[in-house]
Amino acid sequence: MFKEKILEKGFFFVAFSSISILALIAFFIFEEGVPLIWKVGPSSFLLGERWFPSQGSFGIFPMIVGSFWVTLGALIVGVPLGVACAVFLCELTPPSVSMVLRPTIQLLAAIPSVIYGFWGLIILVPLIRNALGGPGLSVLAGSLVLGIMILPTIISISEDSLRALPRTFKEGALSLGATHWQTIWRVLLPAARSGIVASVILGMGRAIGETMAMIMILGNAVQMPRSILDSARTLTTNIGIEMGYATGDHRQALFATGVILFFIVMGLNTIALVISGRRRA
Amino acid sequence: MMISRHTSQMVAKGVIWVAAFSTLAVMIWILFQVLVEGLPLLHLNFFLDSPRQMGRTGGIFSTIIGTLALTAVAIVIATPLGVGTAVYLREYTRESRVSRIIRFGTDCLAGVPSIIFGLFGFVFFVILLRLGWSILSGGLTLATMILPTIICTAEEAVKAIPYSYREVSFALGGTRLQTVARVILPNAIPGIFTGVLLGVGRSVGETAAIILTAGSSLLIPTSLFSPARTMSVHFYILAREGISMEMAYATGAALILLILGINTLANWLLWRYFRKVGG
């Protein structure tokens, strides 16, 4: 009996490992990063446009703007394609075909991001440079690659929420004389809205957090991108590129960049969880 | 002019077919681009020879060792934690405030970007615990990354075991612990193994967190405290620094084959498991 009690406590403590790790991550990132934000001043850190670590100027506004544009671009590419694929898998193919396609899509989620980045670098970048001009390493290339990378997330969660709908929704619409497409567009998609929105937000979190693929194809110049053909730097790539050699205040500024990134991603995760949790309830 | 609803249905369905097939086509393009160029370069010596001249020639032996070592550390640490959490959530508690907090933490941890794990691993394992850039630092960081995957899959596996199994065990006088150890876990092993394999896949594909915690040394690691380079990191450095496109293609092809193998095995096991327990 004694052993039982001990092990029950053991399981209880183990069960808190993930939340403790999350707390440790937050603590150490904040401990390293927050002092610098106060030293520079929150507004000049967030809204400053000059990032010259050697001269002690740390403004990450260009990176925030870069992350914003690349993520927006990824959503413009990924959301319509992803939702279309989810509809395709649920409604337009026989179960035998989607049985094969679904694991394939899961597999694509497992392909390392550096492979996507590599493809962007050798295929998309020269294509954009030759067809549209500019350096090729650009917001456009980054958005396209990220849009493809978030597809598995959007497809699988949207598909789940479409499949979770009661059959009666579809039967009711069809028996009222609606065409199959009218049923999909006016009944099924609106009914699955919360799941689709959650999938988009999770995809957004994934897009904002991507690092290595973006280092390979964004060009990484610290500047405000003026067009989609300009090079850009995101919050993640700022950390990824400079962490290798940064020391002192510079290193702390990179942790501070991580603090901002952490807040954005946690905010998005929480929103997605609340939306999908409400649906479950 | 009114477009008939049957015409608009045909157009809309056509658009969806085109979208689905172009998505599939791009994904196949990405994989085949690397495989077609890389596969012909793969031969035995490429796997058994270590990189020379920064990776311009030679093979990828030391990076294979690095990948294996880092992944092994991550799995050894994360599996007991993940399975323990799953057992606690399913066998020791009902849906409660505590279990909701644990699930929320797990979901949030799953969404943390890998570069943040890298920063954390760097300041905590590399600097504070003085483990340096090493297999241990990298493996521990990876363990924290793959924990949510293992928890989720293990929980699904435990959940899928029919309730009658537990009732029989309790009816025979088994305690909760005996039920978990002798009935639940042995039956859930294939499902748990799937989660572990998915964790292996994620570890093999990871780059950002590993560069910051395990370094990128090309030497063959000799202990848990040696720095190491994994295949993904090697591929990234070859491609980004333009060291050798040929070597990058070959390494990329090996990486894709490895990931495809791991994930196919994981999916197959999962399919067999749920067919067996009828979950």
General description of the model:
The complex is a heterodimer of chains A (281) and B (279). Chain A is an all-alpha fold and 281 residues long. Chain A contains 14 helices and two strands, in the order αααββααααααααααα. Chain A has helices spanning 2-15, 17-40, 42-47, 61-92, 95-110, 113-132, 139-149, 151-163, 167-175, 180-191, 193-209, 212-217, 235-242, 248-280, and strands at 51-52, 57-58. In chain A, strands 1-2 form a two-stranded antiparallel ribbon. Chain B folds into two domains: 5-41; 44-277, MetI-like fold (Orthogonal Bundle), CATH 1.10.3720. Chain B is built from eleven helices and two strands. Chain B has helices at 5-38, 44-48, 61-92, 97-111, 114-128, 135-159, 163-171, 176-205, 208-214, 231-240, 245-277, and strands at residues 51-52, 57-58. In chain B, strands 1-2 form a two-stranded antiparallel sheet. Chains A and B meet through helix 1, helix 2, helix 4, helix 5 and helix 6 of A and helix 1, helix 3, helix 4, helix 5 and helix 6 of B.
Short description:
Chain A is mainly α and 281 residues long. Chain A has 14 helices and two strands, in the order H-H-H-E-E-H-H-H-H-H-H-H-H-H-H-H. In chain A, strands 1-2 form a two-stranded antiparallel sheet.
